[in-house]
């Protein structure tokens, strides 16, 4: 907190007061976004939600561009110029996991001290907190930044396969990127995330009559089970990743030697070396000798690399905790087994914190919620943290 760029230019009372003012009407804005079916599989719905939010970005002073990208609804990019040097990124997404019809079936509603609805937590509430934090700083006249870049993704829930390269291009070189996913249910922010690999193992065998000519068959189900057992044993010896064998499908009838079987395996990565170790293990499981006549095939997709809590991220986490303390907020940072777009940004060397949105939980389910009382405090925290963000020369290994 001694570096000049990390001195707080505003008092906590000023931040809180302005945050309470600029967030007036936030619940209706949230209701507007949550009322749109915008599952990733519905790019028109995602585009509609993103365009509405882009209009609010423009009203807040951003120069907004929509970048069309084949295969999805693209990216929305808002840029704001200041008179300083630091470059700060904010990152969120407009898509959800919910099927069409959910918005009408389960409109946003209050349940006690919670607001419940599809996407309130993951992550429409976070988008609004990011927008309002900018408005707080503008209201206070803060211009000690070179650029603020707010990027809204349209396909985070399916791994950002089409958008990830453009996101990385837009946010590389930032002094910090704050990802607007919700805080954990206990209020924690996220300083480390597991990476995610989705693996599909397929065994191709040969069918035959199980009673009359079983010797002419090659049992794909048996071979797949044997390989999965071997994979599970080997993975249990690893500390850099863990696996979950999620689904197994194969065969047609009990009296037919199955000629095909498939398993879907979720792999969580906890170390930068984990990807290469998983790749080597998958090559081994495919090439192992087995039942004659069965051929193995692997389809491995990296959804997210691991977000490792390095010294640069540690410094941001310490700063966030100090900012929170000055606002009377008890804050800790934690790791999580879930991936987000933060993983890609952090993996490219940009200091990154996640979970800067409102407090919430139960994502992807019928009881997904945020705590409305957390909106003003989390807006205040993000605004203060942005104003204190250190310049790039505070990063690890740079003088």
From TrEMBL:
Entries under CDD domains matching the protein: M20_CPDG2
Listed Gene3D superfamilies: 3.30.70.360, Zn peptidases
Domain Peptidase M20 dimerisation, chain residue ranges per copy: 192-289
Molecular-function annotations in GO: hydrolase activity; metal ion binding
Cofactor needs: Zn(2+)
Keywords for the protein's UniProt record, in alphabetical order: Hydrolase, Metal-binding, Zinc
InterPro entries named in the record: ArgE/DapE_CS, Bact_exopeptidase_dim_dom, Pept_M20_glutamate_carboxypep, Peptidase_M20, Peptidase_M20_dimer, Peptidase_M20A
Residues forming the catalytic site: 95, 156 (proton acceptor)
Ranges in a coiled coil: none
Top-level taxon of the source organism: Bacteria
Pfam families according to UniProt: M20_dimer, Peptidase_M20
UniProt-recorded name of the protein: Peptidase M20
Organism: Polycladomyces abyssicola
């Amino acid at each position: 907190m001694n570096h000049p760029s990390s001195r707080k230019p505003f008092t906590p009372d000023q931040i809180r007061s302005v945050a309470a003012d600029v967030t007036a009407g936030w619940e209706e804005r949230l209701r507007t976004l949550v009322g749109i079916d915008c599952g990733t599989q519905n790019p028109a719905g995602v585009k509609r939600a993103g365009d509405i939010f882009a209009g609010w970005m423009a009203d807040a002073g951003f120069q907004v561009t929509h970048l069309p990208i084949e295969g999805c609804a693209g990216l929305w990019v808002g840029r704001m110029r200041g008179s300083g040097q630091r470059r700060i990124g904010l990152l969120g997404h407009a898509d959800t996991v919910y099927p069409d019809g959910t918005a009408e079936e389960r409109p946003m509603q209050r349940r006690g001290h919670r607001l419940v609805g599809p996407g309130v937590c993951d992550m429409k509430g976070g988008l609004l907190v990011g927008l309002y934090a900018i408005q707080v700083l503008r209201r206070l006249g803060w211009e000690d930044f070179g650029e603020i870049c707010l990027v809204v993704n349209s396909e985070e829930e399916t791994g950002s396969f089409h958008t990830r390269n453009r996101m990385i291009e837009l946010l590389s070189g930032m002094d910090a990127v704050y990802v607007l996913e919700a805080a954990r249910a206990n209020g924690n922010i996220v300083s480390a995330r597991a990476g995610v690999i989705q693996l599909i193992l397929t065994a191709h065998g040969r069918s035959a009559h199980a009673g009359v000519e079983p010797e002419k068959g090659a049992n794909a189900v048996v071979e797949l089970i044997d390989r999965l057992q071997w994979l599970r044993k080997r993975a249990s010896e690893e500390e850099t990743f863990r696996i979950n064998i999620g689904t197994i499908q194969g065969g047609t009838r009990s009296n037919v030697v199955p000629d095909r079987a498939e398993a879907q395996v979720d792999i969580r990565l906890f170390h930068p070396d984990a990807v290469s170790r998983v790749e080597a293990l998958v090559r081994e499981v495919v090439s192992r000798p087995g039942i004659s006549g069965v051929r193995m095939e692997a389809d491995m997709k990296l959804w997210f690399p691991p977000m490792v809590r390095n010294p640069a991220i540690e410094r941001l986490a310490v700063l966030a905790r100090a900012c929170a303390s000055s606002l009377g907020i008890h804050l800790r940072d934690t790791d999580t087994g879930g991936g987000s777009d933060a993983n890609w940004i952090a993996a490219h060397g940009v200091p990154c914190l996640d979970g800067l949105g409102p407090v919430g939980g139960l994502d992807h389910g019928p009881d997904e919620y945020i705590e409305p009382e957390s909106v003003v405090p989390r807006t205040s925290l993000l605004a203060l943290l942005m104003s204190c963000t250190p310049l790039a020369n505070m990063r690890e290994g740079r003088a």
